[in-house]
Fold this protein.
Amino acid sequence: MRLDKFLKISRLIKRRTVANEACDAGKILVNQKVARASYSVKENDVVEINISSKPLKVRIKKILEHANKENTSEMYEMLQ
C-alpha cells in the first residue's frame, strides 16, 4: 500500500492530499529515511510524522485496504 494512502486510511493524517504534500516536503520518515508518497509500506515499518510541534512515531502492525474508526487502532502502535 502507498504511504499516503496508509496515512489516510489509518487516520493518522486527515486527507490524502495533505499526506502527499507532507511527503513531498520531507516531513514523513519511514525507517529513519525521508519517504515519498509512493513508498510501499510494509508491516513493522516505523513511520515518523513531523507536521505539528509534537512529532508522531508509529509502527505498522497490519495493513488494511478499508478501515473504520474501530479498526484503525489495529493498524499501528504508538511509539515513544
